[in-house]
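Write out this protein's structure.
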Amino acid sequence: MKKKFSPLLYLGVFYLTSCISQENPPLIETPDQSKFSTLTIVDGIDVPWGMDFISENELLVTEKKGTLYLVKNGNKTEVSGLPEIYQRGQGGLLDVALHPDFKNNKIIYFTAGSIVGEEEGGNTALYCAELNGNSLSNLKLLYKASPNTKKGQHWGSRIVFDNQGHLYFGIGDRGNRDVNPQDLKRDGGKIYRLNLDGSIPEDNPFVNEQGAKEATYSYGHRNPQGMTVHPKTGEIWENEHGPKGGDEINIIKKGNNYGWPLITYGINYSGTPITDKRSMPGMEQPFYYWVPSIAPSGMAFSTSGVYKKWKGDLFVGSLKFKYLERLVLKKGKVVKREKILNEIGRVRNVKEGPDGYLYLGVEGKGILKVIKN
């Protein structure tokens, strides 16, 4: 008699073999939590998706439902002048970032769900505008993914800058995993690179490929939720949600294919396989991956030295398990993992402030400053 397929058995075997095969340590330590505490910088924000600092006491914070706040000394004021924000599922008002020359031009960038287009629904868009006090002016739509869809998942999206005048942002596969990530002619499942004015860099990898989305810098991504710049190398580091298992940290390289969904360390939420392949020629392996998933969101290096023994470490928020994860890096590998602020809440964003401290966007709490006691 033929044995029935057991998703639970497959899941257990998959997780076991994945953890055994990892070169990086699969277990996470939980140090004495009395060593850590937080200071609330601003409260009353349900989903603080993105933030960026203007000064030590002034920052911008996005609320996913469609509100941009200017926070000064802990007091928040709503900023007017946003476009219509399309909120559906995981989408809404997402990341916000200051132009590298913000002090002189007052330009900010933000990503959000947008209904611009002929189809019903929406997709991720990148905007810029000038911040004048508590209002925005000269609003410009720099990039809008197409087509629109009523699906609510996998919008991306973080914004970072390199030192050569480029802006990077991510858009998830928008729930169309078998089409978007591997098709250069379609948006979704990509990291994009633009000049600061929104134009396409002439040396983008696919500008000469007929029909390709010329803003694409890398592809084969599932749902980018964290992005940061390595403080020494200038490399773009990205984290993204896997399915059940297989969350990844990737170092983004020009024109590279990161494999989703043709290769993955994850499986379907039902326990069935997506693919039997974890590697293929021409596809990048993650720098690090999590099995089981932690649902990473937000990511920052600690560079200032204000925390003893944390300088150079990478910090990632966990939505699923409600903690801040510390990853110690040595010789290009993760050699140690720790739960910092265990059970703090769903950590949506992680940012290093101008004072050198780490700041967290925690759902239902607001913006918290990390204190090492």
